[in-house]
Write a structure and sequence with these properties.
The structure holds 2 protein chains of 2 kinds. By secondary structure, chain A is an all-alpha fold. Chain A has 12 helices and 2 strands, in the order αααααββααααααα. Helix content of chain A is 74%, strand content 3%. Chain B contains 14 helices and 2 strands. Chain B has one domain. The chains are: A mainly alpha, B mainly alpha. Chain B: Keywords: Cell membrane, Membrane, Transmembrane, Transmembrane helix.
Amino acid sequence: MSFTLLAVQILNGLQLGVILFLVAAGLTLVFGVMDFVNLAHGVQYMLGAYLTAVAVAATGHFGLGLAAGLVGSLALGFAFEVLLFRHLTRRDHLEQVLATFAVILIVTDLVRMIFGPAPLPLRLPELFTGSIRMMPGLAYPIWRLVVIGAGLAVAFLLWVLITRTRTGMLLRAGSTHPEMVSALGVDIDRVFLFVFAFGAMLAGFAGAMAGPILSIEPAMGDNVLILAFVVIVIGGIGAVRGALVASLIVGLVDTLGRAFATDLLRLVVDRSAAAQAGPAIASMAIYVFMAAVLIFKPTGLFTGERAWTRTR
Amino acid sequence: MTRALARRVAALLLHPATAIVGLALAVALAEAFGWNFAVTLATRAAILALAALSLSFVIGQGGMVSFGHAAPFGIGAYAVLIAGEYGIREVSLLLPLAFLAAAAFAVPTGALALRTRGVYFIMITLAFAQMAYFVFAALSAFGGDDGMGLAGRATFAGARFLRSDGNLAWLSVGLLAAAAWVLHRVVAARFGFVLRAARDDEARVSALGFSVYRTRLVAYALGAGIAGLAGALLAEQTAFVSPALMNWHRSGELIVMVVLGGSGRLAGAVLGAIAVVLVEEFLGGVTEYWKLGLGLLILAVVMSRAIDLRALLARIAR
């Protein structure tokens, strides 16, 4: 376990954490503001990756393709909300689970039908393809650094948007006192619509960012969705700030656990037992962490004023 | 007159026993005519009905929307596999073992999940089920990601009773009937009343001096144990166990079965399970994209309840 390996794994963990944040931020707002269980958020992540890959291939330009992918994700978010989810926001959670689960089944199979089960390539421009030597013996892919930077930039923009603007004020007010806000003449359903579509766009952005690193395939949203759930439970529902901290923790714990659990176990048990138990323990790590948080803070780490919007 | 008759027929069709008797008849007919395919299908329907029934108890009676019911189901299957590797192949031992293993998973995870409500509960049960999935996928001694075949079907009192598909079908339908009866009794008992009352008004039940938390945990573990039985039966049927059994899509499908049949009644889950198994079988024979069809069906059912169709039509007509 050398220092360079540790540094690389920490960067990998940060990069996973940032992707998780982009997915979880939209999801937690939809949960917190509308009390709506959206299982189809992973589908929006997957669609963002596909749209970007197709647009990049069609235009031959990465920036244009990414922009088209983002606009497409936003449009899909609007479409889903208007056609389906708006009718379900006041129904019980069970029906929301069913409807969004059905959307997963439908969209995943449609994508498989159109693009086939094989992964789709997403080519990066020359500028982002190489690696940077960060210190002697440590070269790290440029794109992954770009992903980390972009994710942190989005986090900063979200903070400004939610805590420093009028839109953010409406959002915060709408999440705690929807009746009062609508009595003041604000169309609260429209606020929800924009929150939903914006969340879909963030998920699509995450998909586009992850596309060149992971393979773009119909089921790519599944694992991210469940990790995003873990993030939201840890951070507190509705808390964007909680989502940021929790995603970085989950990204780091998961990545470092998978990289080092077997080696660490070898210090206490013999080689073959460590090889057996290591992967199993590593895959449990984030869930055990979630359980620990639940024991001490059942509503997540961040609640109240400092959470950036309400927590339930 | 005809309306009263129709109501009576509907009540009979929806009676808990009808669907199970129907399954038993299907098995008897299929065996008599030697339709092996139908025996397998009926067994599968009975097994999934058993799992859905246990989830219906948890969701419908307990008001706990668990999105992780595939976990106890899969743990029941793994109990059969792992015990088999250690030489235990006796079904009268394997079934209780599967029940206990699944319940043993449900007690600590349920104890944590039940500290929360609503959306949290849904997400946490899903997360714990996914944890179980990844743990079994990492256990290379028992097949890891790929899963592992069973050495053979279990024995019953030392005899190779379950080698016949027909006998396994009867065991599955019999267990389904037994579980339905037990759950029916539990629902009708004081425990069931407390459980439902807590679902409807937690504060009042607490004020009456009942421990809502403990009642729910017991119900959650009982539901998980029965799901474990179903998982053990499925392992016997397919003679193969893999982490795919606890894929979260299965948790979703079990919820679909419960809700399609009506979550308020235990019997609804049995009907829902039979319907989903038939839809899967039928669509799966026609196209590889059968999940698309299932999804459209679910969406149609849910949206038709959510949208006021008459108001929508009136608005379009205007």
